[in-house]
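Q: What changes when 2-phosphoglycolic acid is included in the input?
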Amino acid sequence: MEILIRDTLKASAQMAARVVLKIIHSEEKTVLGLATGGTPLRMYQELIRMKQTGELSFKNCTTFNLDEYAGLLPEDERSYHYYMMSNFFDHVDIDRKHVHLPDGNTENLRDACRKYEQQIKNAGGIDLQVLGIGANGHIGFNEPTGSFASRTWVKILSEQTIQDNSVYFEKQEEVPRHVVTMGIATIMESRHCLLLANGAKKADAIRKMIEGPISASCPASILQMHPRVTVVLDEEAAYLLTFKDHYKWVEKNKLDWQSY
Ligand code: PGA
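A: The predicted holo structure follows.
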């Protein structure tokens, strides 16, 4: 894993955006996997800024989001559809025909999940998958002890995630218990993963993900088996890492073409 540690939230968001920029510039057409939540918000703001200054265009991008709540309408402000439109897609030049989010609001969720997997395949797979991490080590909405072989499917949120995400809802009881999420195997097939984490609340999950044993108890730890993962952290999220100095040393000694 490539571990990049930055002093501030702003610097880590800028770093993450540069990873996205590099991949978009290196491919004729790019398939991006995107994430929601509090963590990537600043990265989206930075990408919007890059679009405004003409550094970057999303015209040749196709996107697939990681997950969505079941039972919320796309226009519901708490849905990830709404989040993506208002925080990103409404501000960039992406063709809406190329935007995909899991459909959490259909009669037949299982068919919708199978169709989503097929759409990712038809697009040629994901070039860069942006990920956050839950305080319990989840990626997407793949909660601890779920299968590493899982595909896009309907999942049940853990009580901890319901509690963590209740800040976006008026009452904890309003947080949907069911979600649709890309599976761990879906995520592992993407060609490059970019995982972002900020704040001391994520430090334990980050330590387990990078330096702990590979275990379904920390779903993100499977990324140790992925050939290309970039992790962008602020100092707080990195504070429990045993090999923090080594990661900084490695970054300092990168070859030019390895930088973003
Ligand atoms: P957060 O969520 O960015 O809101 O902390 C991350 C996640 O649960 O994957």
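Observations recorded in class: The pocket of 2-phosphoglycolic acid is lined by residues 37-39, 132-134 (CB under 6 Å).
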